Structures are given as structure tokens and as C-alpha cells.
Inverse folding.
């Protein structure tokens, strides 16, 4: 196989980069933006143009109005984009530099959340909110997505708060299944930001990034008067910012595993105990099937609160009446089963008993099936062809297809490897990607990164072993830093221009672990091979390398598994979108 210039194992050759950086300059004190006069002018012009089409105005006059409206509209778009970049800069300023494993993180002045709610006058609105609260290690985002989609299919106005975002921070706040508009996001951001800036001080500092996001979600959902708010816990449960909800309608725990152990504990019992922190007295609780150790901890907490904890079985495919889940992967039937239980209980508690499933054996109501089959969530078992290569070489058969999954725990690595092995064997590419198929040989490539707080020896072995068990081996592994580490939130994400500023020590350590895994059975101790792995100083360089290989060898299809970090998934999607 041909390889592009990069950090081959055992070398330290740097490739030049020519990307640029940008930043938003935060201005002190900002009032919420008022409606722009150009918008009024544009609307007036549209009315006049409509009149001209009915013969009331000459075409020449219509043309002059078109030109007059275009300039202010473009100016307004530019102004709003600048304002949006400024907001992203302010959000970035809330990202704490404290390492998440810091000993002071447990709780980390969690009682400040009550003060923030008082400042934003959100206590009563949250008390009235009809919340579905979900924690877990794996699948909590998918469970929330399924649940929201089901209830939206019934016609309820829905709010969905999830994390992290992949390409745009507005993805975290969905209204009726759609990311919040830029206009509304800016309006609610400034409302929260200005009130907090006015009332915070040394004793009550500005909330950290995720806490601000949760507060913003509560403001958005209350102001938009949603019928149901589906909240995904950010980390843990007991001290999570979403846990200020005192009386949710129902709580759920998705599959548990080993993740964020530096904060939540080293055993499943400890981790489950933190997740069970969202349980509330008098509130029904459901869980996906768990290991014995985790289940014992969940049951203990439920018993202390005097509530029953019910286990939701994985959804049986026949209940969907020959439809398929909107999210790929066999494991999604576990998440769908929990979502059905949560949505059913919410309907019951809100007095909609007639809309609930009759039993566990008959097919689900049409609204449930529609919600489950139409649910969508980027970065989870998602297949994306590289349209740049596949379109520019359409007279030839070369192709690059990316298989994206944000797995970042040992258990999810196994699920990810099983999915990738299955779909590449079946060549299950949607019909719109037909031009991507070469019909010839294929190469399996791994594009990987994970956060430095995670132990690669708990991730990569599960990926390799499960792949091997499914008859799949990787021809090449590429290790890259996340683009988003350079610009946390801004839309113009780019790597530093100077190569010497790039620290690749983590990526080199990942490569070392990979090589040891590959050569362990051959008796080779820590010897790296440039034929099986490479380290790149930026993600764009790695993707360009893949494209170059595809162009030079058009008889081979390149099937690229991207995993290890949802941030990496977002970076890849952003680059492919360009």
C-alpha cells in the first residue's frame, strides 16, 4: 500500500501546514441585539415585488427594489455571523482549564446551580417543565433521540438537550426535532449572559461551560413552552447540571460501563451509584439491562428512595411492523426498548393512556413506529461517502467512505467493531452512494483519537479483538489530534500554522499501543511498522492522504472507520461538509 508523508512509526518528520487561525474578540458588556432595520426593509421589498408581479409596478422598479434589498440583507447576514462568532468566543471563555480528574471536581460547588437558577428566575419554569431525564454510559443520547422522536410523532412540542455537539453548538438544543435557529440562540444566549454577568462576582463566579449550556437549555425550553423536555445528563448524574430538576416525570438509565473513571469511580458499583443520583422520590425509573454489579447499585438507590426500578427489555424487531430503526446497529434495540418505556410512562403520567402500547407482544402504535424509524443522530453508526473524491473521479471507480461512530468506552468499542465488520461485509451503503462502490478490493483504515484522560489500553484492545473475532483486520491506522482542540467552539476551526507548536506525544503513544497489539502475537516487542500505522499532525492532512491513495489506486475502495472521540467525529463531518 502507498502511504502519504506523515509521522511513520519511529520517525519524527513534520509536514508543513498552511492553515490559518481566527478568533472572536469579546467586547465587555453586550445588550441583547435589537431587530435590524435592514430586515424590515427586505420584508417591505418582498411585498412590493409581489405587487409588481401582479402588474402594479414596472419591471424596472422591481429590479431596483431587488438590488436595494440584497445589499442590506447581505450586510445583516454578515453582522449576525460576526455576532455568532462573538458568542462562541464568550462560551469558550467559560471552558475551565481545570483537568476534569481534579480532586475538587466531585460536586465542584454544585450548590452554585441554585444561585444561578435564582438569578435567571428559572426555578418556577423548571418546576412546571415535563421532563424526561436520562443518564448512562452508552446510548443515553440515542435513547433521548428515540424518546423525543416518538413524542414528537404524537404532535407534542418537544425540546431535546444533548451533548456534545459535533459541528455547531446549536445542535445541543433541538426544538421539534430541529436545531434551534441562530436568531433564537443569540436572543436567549444574551438574555442569560447579561443577567449572569450582572449578578455574578468572586463568591458566585460565572458558571462553567456545561452548566451555562444546561441553564441556557432550561431558558430556551421554558420560553418556547415545550410540552416535554428530554434531558441527557452530561457526565455522571448526581452532580450533573441537569440534575437541578427536582421532579421529572420519569427517569432512565441506559447501558453502564467504564468511562470517566477518574471522576465517577473505578468500579461499576461506584459508577452506577453516581448515575442513580438522578433518581427522585416518587418518580418512576427505568433501566436498560445491566451487569449484576451495576444493577445492585441502581436497585439500592431506588430502594432508599422507595421507588420501583423497572428493567426495559430490548425492543423486538417485529414490533416495528417491518420498519427499521432510524439509528443503525443491533445495540440500538436496547436503547429503543428504554425509549419506549420512557415515552409510554410520560404519556401515561400526562393522561394519554389511550396512546400507550397495549402490551409487549402486539406491534407498537403507528406513532411509536414512526418516531423510532425516523429518529436521526449524527456520529452514531453513520456512513458518509467522501463526495469530493467520489464525484471528481466519477468516470472511474475509486471511492472513500467514512464509517463514523463516537465510541469511547471499552464496551462501545466492541459494539462499534461489530457494526463496522458487519456493514463492510454486507457492503450496506445507501443507494445514493452507489457510485462509491468499486466492485473490487477494499482497504480497511482506522482513523482514531481519544481524550488523554482515557486509557488506550482499555479501548484499542477491545476494538482489535472484536474486529478479529468478526474476521476483519485493519490495513492501516491513522492517529491524529482533534481539530477542535485548537478552537473549542468557533466555526473556523484550524490547526496552528507552526508545526513546532503541535504536540503529538499523545498520538505517538496511541500508535505505540496499536503496534504492540498488532505485533504481540509475533513476538515483536514494541517494534513499530510504518506499513501499519501513521501519525499526522492534523486531520486535514490525514484525509488528504486518504484521498490521494484513492486517486492513485482507483481499483481499491477505502473504508475508513472513524472512532474514539465524538469531537473527532464532528471534525471529520465538518471537513467533509466543506
Amino acid at each position: 500500500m502507498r502511504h502519504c508523508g506523515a509521522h511513520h512509526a519511529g520517525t519524527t518528520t513534520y509536514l508543513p501546514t498552511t492553515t490559518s487561525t481566527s478568533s472572536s474578540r469579546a467586547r465587555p458588556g453586550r445588550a441583547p441585539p435589537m431587530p435590524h432595520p435592514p430586515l424590515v426593509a427586505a420584508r417591505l421589498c418582498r411585498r412590493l415585488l409581489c405587487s409588481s408581479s401582479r402588474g402594479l409596478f414596472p419591471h424596472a422598479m422591481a429590479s431596483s427594489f431587488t438590488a436595494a434589498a440584497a445589499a442590506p440583507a447581505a450586510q445583516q447576514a454578515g453582522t449576525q455571523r460576526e455576532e455568532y462568532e462573538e458568542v462562541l468566543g464568550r462560551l469558550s471563555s467559560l471552558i475551565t482549564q481545570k483537568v476534569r480528574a481534579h480532586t475538587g471536581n466531585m460536586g465542584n460547588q454544585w450548590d452554585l446551580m441554585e444561585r444561578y437558577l435564582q438569578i435567571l428566575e428559572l426555578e418556577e419554569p423548571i418546576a412546571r417543565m415535563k421532563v424526561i431525564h436520562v443518564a448512562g454510559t452508552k446510548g443515553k443520547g440515542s435513547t433521548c433521540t428515540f424518546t423525543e422522536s416518538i413524542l414528537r410523532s404524537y404532535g407534542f412540542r418537544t425540546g431535546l438537550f444533548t451533548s456534545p455537539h459535533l459541528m455547531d453548538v446549536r445542535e445541543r438544543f433541538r426544538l421539534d426535532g430541529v436545531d434551534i435557529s441562530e436568531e433564537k440562540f443569540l436572543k436567549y444566549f444574551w438574555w442569560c449572559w447579561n443577567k449572569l454577568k450582572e449578578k455574578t462576582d468572586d463568591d458566585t463566579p460565572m458558571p462553567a461551560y456545561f452548566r451555562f449550556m444546561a441553564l441556557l437549555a432550561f431558558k430556551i425550553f421554558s420560553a418556547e413552552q415545550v410540552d416535554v423536555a428530554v434531558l441527557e445528563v452530561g457526565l455522571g448524574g448526581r452532580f450533573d447540571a441537569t440534575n437541578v430538576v427536582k421532579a421529572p416525570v420519569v427517569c432512565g438509565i441506559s447501558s453502564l460501563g467504564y468511562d470517566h473513571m477518574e471522576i465517577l469511580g473505578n468500579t461499576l458499583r461506584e459508577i452506577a451509584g453516581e448515575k442513580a443520583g438522578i433518581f427522585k422520590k416518587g418518580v418512576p425509573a427505568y433501566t436498560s439491562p445491566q451487569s449484576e454489579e451495576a444493577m445492585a447499585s441502581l436497585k439500592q438507590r431506588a430502594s432508599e428512595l422507595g421507588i420501583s426500578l423497572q428493567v426495559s427489555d430490548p425492543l423486538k424487531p417485529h414490533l416495528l411492523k417491518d420498519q427499521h430503526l432510524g439509528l443503525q446497529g443491533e445495540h440500538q434495540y436496547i436503547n429503543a426498548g428504554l425509549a419506549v418505556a420512557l415515552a409510554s410512562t410520560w404519556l401515561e403520567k400526562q393522561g394519554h393512556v389511550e396512546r400507550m402500547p397495549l402490551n409487549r407482544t402486539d406491534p407498537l402504535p403507528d406513532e411509536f413506529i414512526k418516531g423510532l424509524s425516523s429518529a436521526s443522530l449524527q456520529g452514531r453508526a453513520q456512513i458518509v461517502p467522501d463526495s469530493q473524491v467520489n464525484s471528481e473521479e466519477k468516470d472511474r471507480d475509486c471511492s472513500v467512505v467514512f464509517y463514523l461512530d463516537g465510541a469511547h468506552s471499552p464496551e462501545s468499542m466492541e459494539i462499534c467493531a461489530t457494526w463496522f465488520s458487519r456493514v463492510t461485509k454486507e457492503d450496506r451503503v445507501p443507494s445514493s452512494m452507489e457510485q462509491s462502490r468499486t466492485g473490487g478490493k477494499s482497504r480497511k483504515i482506522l482513523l482514531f483519537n481519544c481524550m488523554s484522560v482515557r486509557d488506550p489500553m482499555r479501548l484499542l484492545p477491545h476494538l482489535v479483538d472484536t474486529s478479529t473475532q468478526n474476521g476483519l483486520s485493519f490495513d492501516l491506522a491513522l492517529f491524529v489530534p482533534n481539530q477542535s482542540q485548537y478552537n473549542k467552539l468557533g466555526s473556523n476551526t484550524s490547526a496552528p500554522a507552526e508545526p513546532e507548536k503541535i504536540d503529538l506525544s499523545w498520538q505517538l503513544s496511541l500508535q505505540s499501543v496499536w503496534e504492540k497489539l498488532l505485533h504481540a502475537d509475533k513476538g515483536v516487542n514494541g517494534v513499530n511498522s510504518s506499513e501499519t500505522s501513521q501519525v499526522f499532525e492534523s486531520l486535514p492532512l490525514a484525509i488528504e492522504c486518504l484521498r490521494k491513495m484513492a486517486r492513485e489506486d482507483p481499483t481499491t475502495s477505502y473504508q475508513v472507520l472513524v472512532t474514539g472521540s465524538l469531537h473527532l467525529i464532528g471534525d471529520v463531518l465538518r471537513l467533509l461538509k466543506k
User: Anything to note?
Assistant: The chain is about 40% helix and 10% strand.
